[in-house]
């Protein structure tokens, strides 16, 4: 597959680097600490480009994870989604998965310095995208690497009088090199757990998830949560290495994914729980009031 141009950000105060590929959906393919890779590479960038198989830190937009059907309500009617059309991809059950921007090439880089990258996508100017998400807006990412922290700011700016649903998220895959997965420790704040059915869709039930701090051992996760506190910190650590993911602002929901047989843990900031675009309960970006969300990955 053709080599796509990448952008490498360098932390002025440490050997930490972050690599982005703007023309592949603004995916972050690497977070490296003096040559030690901290992001799960899974099947690599080629599989993301060809089949939307996620790796690194991809953006899931305009919805994160699955929807429970191939349509969602809008103004008394419905928007119909067709897998294979307009960027829509189905999961193993045919449910729309991870939005429409996987590996999307149309991002415009607006600034690039040594440790900062900004890019935007005029969603409203793309009929193919609007067919699946008919809410004209500009989507902007502002990424900074400084003081051993990668900060990702996302801004959604409506460009008409139509409000824009906020149901997106990111899917960072983290790994702790040189330490067995069973010895990794996962920590979360107090949350509300949202049980899912056999297709990964929240059932509508919920239960208390007290603040958690345990070694992974042979535990697996594919769990959704809400009531994430603003500024809530999730931590993956092992040996002398620690990765903190702070949900600074605009991410009241989360997904944790730690499959068996794969040395990685995904800690996913989400602006709404899975299936919110169909079930409701999401926030919106209002005309004249851009919606800004921020999360930070700090490497200890």
Protein topology:
Layout: E1 7-10, E2 16-21, E3 27-33, E4 36-37, H1 45-51, E5 59-60, E6 71-74, E7 77-80, E8 108-112, E9 116-122, H2 127-130, E10 137-146, E11 149-158, E12 164-166, E13 169-170, E14 173-174, E15 185-188, E16 191-194, E17 207-209, E18 212-215, E19 221-226, E20 232-238, E21 241-249, E22 253-258, E23 265-270, H3 276-279, E24 283-285, E25 291-299
Describe the protein's architecture and organization.
There is one protein chain. This protein has about 300 residues and is mostly beta strands. The protein has a single domain, classed as Distorted Sandwich (Beta-galactosidase, Chain A, domain 5), CATH 2.70.98. Helix content is about 5%, strand content about 45%. It has helices spanning about 45-50, 125-130, 275-280; strands at about 5-10, 15-20, 25-35, 35, 60, 70-75, 75-80, 110, 115-120, 135-145, 150-160, 165, 170, 175, 185-190, 190-195, 205-210, 210-215, 220-225, 230-240, 240-250, 255-260, 265-270, 285, 290-300. It has a nine-stranded antiparallel β-sheet, with no helix packed on it. Strands 14-23-22-19-16-17 form a six-stranded antiparallel β-sheet, with no helix packed on it. Strands 1-2-3-4 form a four-stranded antiparallel β-sheet, with no helix packed on it. Strand 1 and strand 2 (about 15-20) form a beta hairpin. The two termini are about 35 Å apart. The model has no long low-confidence stretch (mean pLDDT about 95).
């Amino acid at each position: 597959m053709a080599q796509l141009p990448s952008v490498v950000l360098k932390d002025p105060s440490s050997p930490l680097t972050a690599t982005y590929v703007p023309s592949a959906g603004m995916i972050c393919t690497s977070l490296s600490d003096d040559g030690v890779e901290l992001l799960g590479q899974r099947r690599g960038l080629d599989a993301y480009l060809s089949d939307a198989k996620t790796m690194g830190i991809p953006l899931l937009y305009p919805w994160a994870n699955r929807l429970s059907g191939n349509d969602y309500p809008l103004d008394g009617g419905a928007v119909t989604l067709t897998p294979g059309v307009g960027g829509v991809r189905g999961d193993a059950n045919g449910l729309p998965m991870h939005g429409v921007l996987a590996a999307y090439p149309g991002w415009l880089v607006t600034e690039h310095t040594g440790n900062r990258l900004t890019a935007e996508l005029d969603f409203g100017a793309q009929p193919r995208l609007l067919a699946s998400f008919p809410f004209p807006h500009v989507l902007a990412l502002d990424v900074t690497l400084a003081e051993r922290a990668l900060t990702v700011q996302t801004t959604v700016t409506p460009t008409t009088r139509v409000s824009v649903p906020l149901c997106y998220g990111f899917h960072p895959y983290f790994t702790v090199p040189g330490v067995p997965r069973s010895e990794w420790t996962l920590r979360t704040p107090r949350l509300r757990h949202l049980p899912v059915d056999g297709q990964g869709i929240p059932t509508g039930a919920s239960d208390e998830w007290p603040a958690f701090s345990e070694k992974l051992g042979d535990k697996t996760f594919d769990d959704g949560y809400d009531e994430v506190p603003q500024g809530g910190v999730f931590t993956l650590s092992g040996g002398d290495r620690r990765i903190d993911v702070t949900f600074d602002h605009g991410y009241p929901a989360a997904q944790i994914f730690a499959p068996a047989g794969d040395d990685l843990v995904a800690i996913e900031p989400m602006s709404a729980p899975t299936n919110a675009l169909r079930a409701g309960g999401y926030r919106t970006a209002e005309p004249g009031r851009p919606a800004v969300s921020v999360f930070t990955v700090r490497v200890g």
